[in-house]
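User: Assemble these into one structure.

Assistant: Restating your components, then the assembled model:
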Amino acid sequence: MNTWMERLNRRTGALGSLCVGIDPHVGLLQAWGLPVSLDGLRRFADRTVTALADQVACFKPQVAFFERWGSQGMAVLEETLANLRQAGALVIADAKRGDIGSTMQAYADAWLGEGPLACDALTVSPYLGIGALQPAIDLAAAKQRGLFVLARTSNPEGTAIQLAWTSDGRSVAQTMVDAAGQINHDLGTPVMGLVVGGTRADVGVDLTDFQGTVLIPGIGAQGGTMSGLRSSFAGTKAKLLPSVSREVLAAGPAAASLRASVARLLAS
Amino acid sequence: MNTWMERLNRRTGALGSLCVGIDPHVGLLQAWGLPVSLDGLRRFADRTVTALADQVACFKPQVAFFERWGSQGMAVLEETLANLRQAGALVIADAKRGDIGSTMQAYADAWLGEGPLACDALTVSPYLGIGALQPAIDLAAAKQRGLFVLARTSNPEGTAIQLAWTSDGRSVAQTMVDAAGQINHDLGTPVMGLVVGGTRADVGVDLTDFQGTVLIPGIGAQGGTMSGLRSSFAGTKAKLLPSVSREVLAAGPAAASLRASVARLLAS
């Protein structure tokens, strides 16, 4: 099996560096003419996968929209993951999990292990410290999978904490960037990626030396283009993986419209 | 229906202020002589609820240990929640969810709404800002439920971020305390609780003026006693809700041993 980075590079090399969110929230189910129900959830996910699996490098199902329906919604997520795997697409579970010790281990086992929720990569949240994520880092490294830790997000409510100053004079967000880079250096393979918002003019963290993948939500509907993004993030060694949800999904439910929306974005 | 705080006060008034974690991790399943399987998970949860539901005010299932088994594990959690409700116990889902916008709304709907995962309260994680939790705050207030936001935890990896300094000279953890207190003041009812670790001599945040509930993991096995806790947290107006997992659960699987362990802790 290849490393997460090798799989990602191969697939983005063929299809372009884009991640598409699978975000079946109530408003989108209604906009697609689907019932607001488990059946609607399943049909939304199926249509998205069928329309885009061979066109898009990577998918990012937003776990909350499945969890919203309880265990039966999670069963729909498992089916969706199986369909994506079958189609050869890569999957980042957007779950933003974060805990300590045996609890963090259990989240890692759920999303990066061998069970029905296992994905290529997982988003994680570091309020308990990036060091608390160690069980997930270890398992991701062992299983050739990836993690994306929240560093600097584009929502305004996140600024106070993410730009707070740690005792050594760096921002909290920068400590995440630096720690993730160090982990990748020590492992010798870029298991740790970052989540960095892409809609501010100022990225807010120094990514010059970061070697790994930066997942960048917020292109498309939230204002950014692919070329704008490359200029905002100019000068970094990192691999950029822009992620789009609203702009592509709002073009549905017709498969041709979804595909045209992806094509437009890839060329933007 | 009474508010979350009224339900909590009534139940802790009758049984004592204690929350017991339901943490069926692999090591505990083995220690209880149970198979490491869905069946073992179900039997662990059933035994804990049957032994303790009439003795303990509040339970805190650790969601990761159910999610670890995928959708079928989440179905076991749903059964466990139904059993706890049936027995009249209060339940805090320890899920540490945190996101923004429609995604946060979906997590709120899952855990504080009307579905099979609905609980009395939910733990939430604020790396995206406490303001990003607004959909959960609104739903908790509307449904007479509660939230517990991570403020200051006892694991060493959390210190750098939680004691980072925000632009107005407070620590990140203190901004969580102050914001939660302000939200409760504005709502006129203490929907927002805090998670504050209980095993350091120095609590690390000023809780003097906080009016709400403080969930304090870490008594028992991690070193604290009930009376030690009351002295560490002396001088606050907050309601203290100590939470124990390891010390009680390690006494199982015999119901009498579990109950004796709870009785010992309540008297400590």
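The beta strands of chain A are 19-22, 58-61, 90-97, 121-124, 146-152, 192-196, 213-217, 239-244.
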